[in-house]
Write a structure and sequence with these properties.
By secondary structure, the chain is α/β, with parallel strands linked by helices. It has 15 helices and 14 strands. The strands form 3 sheets. A 7-stranded mixed sheet has the order 4-10-9-8-7-5-6, with helices on both faces. Strands 1-2-3-12 form a 4-stranded mixed sheet. The protein is globular.
């Protein structure tokens, strides 16, 4: 007698249940459509908002010179590249951008990727094998964590910025190939990794150090070359450097920089590079223009740093629970997710766009307003934000 088959669970139904649960917990993510940008302001749903949530730290995304470079290249070679780099998609514009990025970061070579997420997945998939060890900061970006897991490596995490704990994790498995990966600037806390200590321990333990400098490139270090350069570390200290081009550089995409052997290996084995259409050549041309401006126009970093100091001084006078950060990312820790959401909504009613960051993006109990500053802002904009925050009476929030 045939046994009745147990109905197979439905994947879409399960996803719908999970989505409903997140909505019930007031943790659901929602899209916002922006219809216009003008300097530090955006327009959304017919409302003009002063935005403090963009990662365009140097204010380059709207620069007319980038737009002109894009148009000139698009007139010459069209919009799309039409192919992966290894087929016929690698254009002169890509090669020139890679040379500029390598020179900027003090590396022998650089390789373009479509996104930072794809760059980190590709690097880890190429470097790591099953049974290798990947040691990471607990607050690393999701793509670093995903990269190690997808590569089949043993993922070991250490408490945030705790170099001593990182050593213990490396020493717990001293016979395997090891990669230590860290953000340079942490995207939600805004603080900077202890790169010198991490480089020293990697040298002692025979591990390879990889730094994701998505939020450091353009704003830290001499010439804006990033957190690794600011720490005084070389290509030998940090063999694998990844950074994105959609934040301080104001464009889109990412790159990995290192010596020739690293880049040659990635060309052969990084699947997210091999099997992806190359970025539009016009975008590469605009990005090379942005790199030149980011390096030459130091006033952008100087202005940004002045705004950061102005905001932190004003927040301290108000007793606001700012986290420790000297970067453009200034998190205001409110703890409760609903409180953060309510504060963001109240600011929007005042014409200010500041995003509430809630679990699972940050740990439970650490919901916050993630305030980001840009060279597009003026001192009057910072003062307006401080005045609005003062009116919300947030000073009693937990630090």
């Amino acid at each position: 007698m045939a046994v009745a088959a147990v109905p197979r669970p439905d994947l879409l139904e399960r996803l719908a249940v999970q989505t409903a649960e997140r909505a019930q917990a007031q943790l659901q993510r929602r899209l916002r459509t922006v219809t216009r940008t003008e300097g530090a302001f955006i327009e959304s749903s017919g409302q003009r908002l002063l935005a403090f949530c963009s990662n365009d730290y140097l204010g380059l995304a709207q620069d007319a010179r980038l737009i002109a470079a894009w148009k000139q290249a698009a007139d010459a070679c069209g919009v799309g590249s039409g192919s992966a780099h290894l087929i016929c998609g690698h254009r002169r514009e890509h090669a020139e951008l890679e040379e500029a990025l390598a020179e900027w970061t003090g590396r022998e070579r650089a390789l373009l990727f479509s996104t930072g997420y794809m760059a980190n997945l590709g690097v880890m998939q190429a470097l790591l094998q099953r049974g290798d060890v990947c040691v990471q900061d607990k607050l690393n970006h999701a793509c670093l964590l995903d990269g190690a897991q997808l590569a089949g490596a043993v993922l070991k995490r250490y408490p945030h910025a705790d170099a001593a704990a990182a050593v213990r994790q490396l020493q717990s498995d001293g016979n395997s190939c090891a990669l230590l990966a860290t953000d340079g600037v942490f995207s939600m806390d805004g603080d900077i990794a202890p790169l010198r200590e991490l480089a020293a321990l990697c040298a002692r333990e025979g591990a390879t150090l990889m730094v994701d400098d998505a939020h450091g490139l353009g704003v830290l270090g001499a010439d804006g070359a990033g957190s690794v350069m600011e720490a005084g570390l070389s290509e030998r200290d940090v063999p694998v450097l990844m950074a994105t081009l959609g934040k301080a550089v104001g464009c889109s995409g990412a790159f990995v920089a290192g010596d020739a052997s690293l880049i040659d290996g990635l060309v052969q084995f990084a699947r997210t590079y091999i099997y992806t259409t190359a970025m539009p050549p016009a975008l590469a041309a605009a990005t090379r223009c942005a790199v030149a401006l980011a390096r030459a126009e130091s006033w952008r970093r100087e202005k940004l740093n002045g705004l950061i100091q102005r905001f932190r001084q004003g927040a301290a006078q108000l007793g606001l629970p700012l986290m420790l950060s000297r970067t453009a990312i200034q998190p205001l820790l409110l703890g409760d997710a609903q409180r953060a959401l309510d504060a963001a909504r109240a600011l929007e009613e005042k014409g200010l766009l500041v995003v509430a960051i809630r679990p699972p993006t940050v740990p439970h109990g650490q919901a916050r307003l993630r305030i980001t500053l840009s060279a597009m802002h003026e001192a009057s904009h910072v003062d307006r934000l401080l005045e609005a925050l003062a009116s919300l009476r947030l000073a009693s929030a937990p630090v």
